[in-house]
């Protein structure tokens, strides 16, 4: 076993191996880095800051009262990775680094295949070279395509994605499966996230999208703060209880805890393990608007618009496998997700640049 479990006390002095977190300055990576530090792990973050700011990591250190090592660099830089693995005793990698904007992936597919697929292949080559075989990968519920029924369990088939972003996730999942078949030393977790929202309760770290957000939660909170005029509700004629799209929104802190559980689990397993990280509850767009209005005390101006191409009607997880095998479940409800998002948005109207 290469992952050293941290001591139960707050001290981490006797941990010899470290966790490499790629993309750790980003939204989910920064919250997970915080959870790792709080649990007593030593953390090295590798991030090229294309979609983030090193300020998130300064704040992670502030909140935790612990230090981490930050390397600004690219997962496609093999020399840098080899240097990292040679100079540090790394026990496992949490791999968040990648591009994630669906619309942009249609316009710039090469960027997506390069950052996501080439980056992941490069990382695995460097890991194999360094004999580090524990990997937790950030996948997405998008790999299920348009499932026939809800909730979605891990046994559901994957489907041809409708955009290059989704395609990269499926390709990476597939090659990780091949890799694990080729060498039994690999122990890999594919974590299929549903819809991450929320922020740390301190209001110091949260989601800070570049430019106009594409996703519902950051868009809505920017409407509430007055940065955007109105929210477009994409379609009211879906076969759902109120006609708007239904998703499984999960608090980013629950998601971060899920990574720690997965990290622990893979140290006792080999091969590829797939876990859905969701709450098992679906909320509609209109329900989310109402919950956000209640939590923030702000009215969210919205207009009904056409369906967004590529959207599915509903998508929520069966989280039973993660509960049974990881002993993990999401604990935070919708009100907490909305309250924490609003606290972060109010305190940081310009994200980390403010
Ligand atoms: P994010 O953009 O906030 O974080 C990704 C981080 O990776 C950024 O800090 C970025 O600078 C960095 N990065 C990108 N390319 C890199 C490269 N080549 N080398 C080094 N660093 C690089 O995104 P996030 O929301 O935190 O998502 C993290 C991961 O989870 C991504 O792989 C994403 O596809 C996946 N995911 C996210 C969601 C979501 O809704 N946020 C849902 C499902 C899956
Ligand atoms: C989207 C991506 C998905 C990706 C995920 C996380 C698409 C088609 N899917 O998921 O691949 O893994 O983000 O990055 O882009 N909505 C509005 N108005 C808005 C924005 C969204 O009504 O301005 C609705 C959508 O129609 C959907 C729901 O809100 O019903 C959630 O949308 P969003 O936050 O973009 O997430 P997904 O579409 O689920």
From TrEMBL:
Name of the protein: UDP-glucose 4-epimerase
Domain NAD(P)-binding: 20-340
A Pfam family annotated for this UniProt entry: GDP_Man_Dehyd
Catalytic activity as recorded in UniProt: UDP-alpha-D-glucose = UDP-alpha-D-galactose
Enzyme class name: isomerase
Record's keyword terms, sorted: Carbohydrate metabolism, Isomerase, NAD
Molecular functions per Gene Ontology: UDP-glucose 4-epimerase activity
Requisite cofactors: NAD(+)
Pathway linked to the protein: Carbohydrate metabolism; galactose metabolism
EC number(s) per entry: 5.1.3.2
Family: Belongs to the NAD(P)-dependent epimerase/dehydratase family.
Gene: galE
NCBIfam families: galE (TIGR01179), PRK10675.1 (NF007956)
Subunit structure: Homodimer.
């Amino acid at each position: 076993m290469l992952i050293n479990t941290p001591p139960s006390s707050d001290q981490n002095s006797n941990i010899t191996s470290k966790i490499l977190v790629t993309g750790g300055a980003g939204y989910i990576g920064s919250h997970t880095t915080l959870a790792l530090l709080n649990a007593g792990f030593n953390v090295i973050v590798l991030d090229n800051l294309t979609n983030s700011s090193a300020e998130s990591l300064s704040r992670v250190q502030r909140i935790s009262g612990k230090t981490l090592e930050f390397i600004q660099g690219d997962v496609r830089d093999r020399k840098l990775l080899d240097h990292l693995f040679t100079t540090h005793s790394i026990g496992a990698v949490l791999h968040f680094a990648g591009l994630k904007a669906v619309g942009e992936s249609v316009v710039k597919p090469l960027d997506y295949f390069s950052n996501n697929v080439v980056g992941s292949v490069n990382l695995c080559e460097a890991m194999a070279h360094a004999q580090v075989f524990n990997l937790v990968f950030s996948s997405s519920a998008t790999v299920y395509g348009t499932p026939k029924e809800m909730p979605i369990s891990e046994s559901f088939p994957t489907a041809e994605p409708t955009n290059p972003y989704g395609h990269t996730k499926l390709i990476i999942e597939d090659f990780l499966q091949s890799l694990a078949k080729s060498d039994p030393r690999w122990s890999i977790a594919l974590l299929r996230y549903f819809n991450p929202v929320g922020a740390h309760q301190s209001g110091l770290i949260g989601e800070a999208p570049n430019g106009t957000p594409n996703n519902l939660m950051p868009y809505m909170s920017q409407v509430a703060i007055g940065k955007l005029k109105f929210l477009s509700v994409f379609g009211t004629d879906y076969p759902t209880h109120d006609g708007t799209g239904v998703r499984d929104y999960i608090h980013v802190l629950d998601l971060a805890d899920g990574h720690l559980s997965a990290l622990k689990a893979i140290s006792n397993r080999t091969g590829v393990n797939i876990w859905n990280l969701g709450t098992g509850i679906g909320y509609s767009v209109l329900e989310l608007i109402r919950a956000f209005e209640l939590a923030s005390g702000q009215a969210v101006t919205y207009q009904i618009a056409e369906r967004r191409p590529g959207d599915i009607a509903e998508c929520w997880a069966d989280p039973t496998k993660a509960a049974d095998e990881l002993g993990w479940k999401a604990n935070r409800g919708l009100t907490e997700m909305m309250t924490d998002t609003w606290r972060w948005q109010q305190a940081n109207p310009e994200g980390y640049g403010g």
